[in-house]
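Closing statement on the adenosine-5'-triphosphate sub-project.
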Amino acid sequence: MSDYEDDMDVDGPAPSADITFSAEAAKGKRSAANLPVEAEDSLPWVEKYRPVTLEDVSGHQDILATINKFVEQNRLPHLLLYGPPGTGKTSTILALARRIYGVSNMRQMVLELNASDDRGIDVVREQIKTFASTKQIFSMGGGASKSNSIAGFKLIILDEADAMTNTAQMALRRIMEKYTANTRFCIIANYAHKLSPALLSRCTRFRFSPLKEGDIRVLVEKVVEEENVKIQGEAVDALVKLSKGDMRRALNVLQACHASSTPLRLKNEPKPPESEIKRETITTETIYNCIAAPQPEAVKEIVETLLSTPDVTSCLNTINALKTTQGLALADIITAVMEQLTKLEVNAEVMITWLAGLAEIEHRVAGGASEMVQTGAVVGVVRGGVELMSK
Ligand SMILES: Nc1ncnc2c1ncn2[C@@H]1O[C@H](COP(=O)(O)OP(=O)(O)OP(=O)(O)O)[C@@H](O)[C@H]1O
């Protein structure tokens, strides 16, 4: 679009040596594509399997189609990518930057800042100013084409922008206006409602929803094959379900379970060939333990006891015994119990008692209330609903 193309100005002072910027340095996020093979071995899988191109990003077809259209039309508005963690916001913008600039030019053209750093907006402003005003010293190449004029814009990625104060957001608004001539901003946040309306109105918004189980499964199965993970089919099902749309969580849990299923090696012992490593099989139980989610049998026992035992003390003892033996947190028990209760066919009054009661307890637990007292409250709420049934 012409309003983006006309006002490019890449002249300015020579690059300053003292600013630190890198497309992928923030939060230790690095692309496996740029690393030597030996280093890849010790990489967390979330980095090793981070999408390199936009085609590698799972799910979010509509968003990817629109972003691809922007590139084809030589148009790059300011972007806001928001949504829950581990859904591919950072990966998408890095893949887009790679597509626009090519790997070799990214260092010069992309500045990634973590907006929640406590360096303050003044430092951020200074970094942006220096970055935006430095001259572009590369000749287009390495994937970027000369006719592709959006490659002339610098890209500033502001991660975790929702952690910025209101004052910082106001300052950012000004900064965005000032450097629009040769710079585009991509704001990344978990919650759009924590961003000021003034910032929101300057960006084209994309909501990254939790990934579908099918999308998570495809990558998990690929990693299982490539890393020789020994895992039961049902354990993959449990992993995909318990990840709740968070791909980072799925890969981290899989890697942790794989590591714990691999026999320990002595410090100087060389790594044996893959075929000789005797790993234990990862089971559903391993996955539940690693995620620290209550095992389905434990939840079943808790729910059955709560529904069928009028003796409140006995209910409390059952929950407390399971909490101790399985190391469960009350917050996780509440979520699991609620999931089970909502599957029951009961009248509206009972269901409202359960839902409203458990929601309140969860809120209190999140605010630091005593687990012991709140465990009693769970028993009270569920039994209260059961008593209503018999009226
Ligand atoms: N849509 C996806 N397709 C493929 N891999 C993904 C996707 N989403 C997340 N991942 C995996 O999870 C890791 C974390 O993803 P990413 O950093 O893009 O998430 P994010 O949405 O930016 O999360 P946060 O809000 O916590 O910063 C990636 O390195 C990648 O391995």
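The domain at 2-207 is CATH 3.40.50.300 (Rossmann fold). With this model delivered, the sub-project is considered complete and its resources will be redirected to Aim 3.
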